[in-house]
Design brief:
The N and C termini lie far apart (about 65 Å). The protein has a single domain, classed as Rossmann fold (3-Layer(aba) Sandwich), CATH 3.40.50.300. A 5-stranded parallel beta sheet has the order 2-3-1-4-5, with helices on both faces. About 45% of the residues lie in helices and about 10% in strands. Helix 3 runs antiparallel to helix 5, helix 5 packs across helix 6 and helix 9 runs parallel beside helix 13. The protein has about 300 residues and is an alpha/beta fold. The chain has 14 helices and 5 strands. The longest helix is centred in the middle third of the chain and has 21 residues.
């Protein structure tokens, strides 16, 4: 079988594709992105991939100059995606790359947006839901490319008190310098302000603290932006494939299994060293004030 079509070099995301209103979830790690995936992914009309498949944050980021109109190149990329550890985490699911390649032959111009669409549509079809989405930490850093590819896309951007983010990162045993965590939080917070205006009506920023304290009200607002009907059943989080936890890594908070707990809010007061707290508040003073994480709360 010949896997090569006309090989004209093109902008990897420049050609828009049919409007399907895909939903993307972004925000820093340990900011509630998995919780929102569990909630929104419980909607019977929405298929959000089960793991943090890094389509934009890894494959587009590092390979965006590839010519995907050469289907040999696309096949190699698909093989890499299928072999990614985030894909392999999904037991019992295997992408049919041959089927995807066949559908791509009908595309006049294969961009990264087109390729990712066919991949995630196949997943949605497998679990029997009409609309598709993707949650990956740091998706917000690729929002311009995402909205260029999908003009009708919707994005949910999570933001959380950076002091609690630092505590949560530490609880996972991740060896991340505090300065790096602060810098990334600052960049994400700044993007939240920019993108909420730039993509008004299609982009919603959700503070983790507001979500866990008043999940019904916040998710109603989210559903309005992403154009899904709200039902209280979403808060049960029992229809998102792969969700087996709560929104807290700590085991001593007294939450019920698969419940939404606000007991991790302000945990930094007990678990963040004073020097780290001072560093974070000095580094992120302006953004913390802007997002109502008042400096000395």
């Amino acid at each position: 079988m010949t896997l090569t079509t006309q090989s004209n070099i093109q902008s990897p995301v420049s050609e828009t594709i049919e409007q399907e209103k895909p939903i993307f979830i972004g925000g820093l790690q340990r900011s509630g992105t998995s919780l929102v995936r569990a909630i929104m992914g419980s909607h019977p009309s929405l298929a959000i991939y089960k793991s943090d498949l890094p389509l934009w944050t890894k494959f587009y980021k590092h390979k965006k100059d590839l010519d995907l109109n050469n289907l040999e190149v696309t096949k190699q990329l698909l093989d890499e995606i299928v072999a990614d550890r985030k894909t392999l985490k999904i037991i019992g699911l295997t992408f049919d790359t041959e089927e995807i390649l066949e559908t791509l032959k009908d595309e006049p111009n294969i961009t990264f947006g087109v390729l990712f669409k066919h991949l995630l549509k196949q997943y949605a079809k497998l679990i029997g839901r009409p609309r598709w989405g993707l949650k990956t930490p740091h998706n917000e850093f690729w929002s311009d490319a995402i909205f260029e590819a999908y003009p009708d896309a919707k994005m949910i951007h999570l933001i959380r008190d950076p002091r609690d983010v630092a505590v949560s990162v530490d609880s996972r045993g991740w060896d991340k310098p505090l300065e790096k965590t602060c810098r990334k939080w600052q960049e994400s917070a700044q993007l939240a302000s920019i993108n909420e205006q730039k993509y008004a009506g299609s982009y919603i920023v959700v503070r983790y603290e507001d979500l866990v304290r008043d999940p019904e009200s916040i998710i109603q607002k989210v559903c309005e932006v992403v154009e899904l009907d709200y039902t209280p059943d979403l808060l049960k989080m029992d229809a998102q494939l792969g969700w087996r936890g709560s929104n807290s890594h700590f085991e001593d908070l007294g939450y019920e299994h698969e419940s939404i707990s606000d007991k991790a809010v302000g945990r930094y007061k007990e678990h963040l060293p004073p020097t780290d707290k001072e560093f974070i508040e000095d580094y992120l003073k302006d953004e913390m004030i802007q997002w109502q994480y008042f400096r000395f709360v």
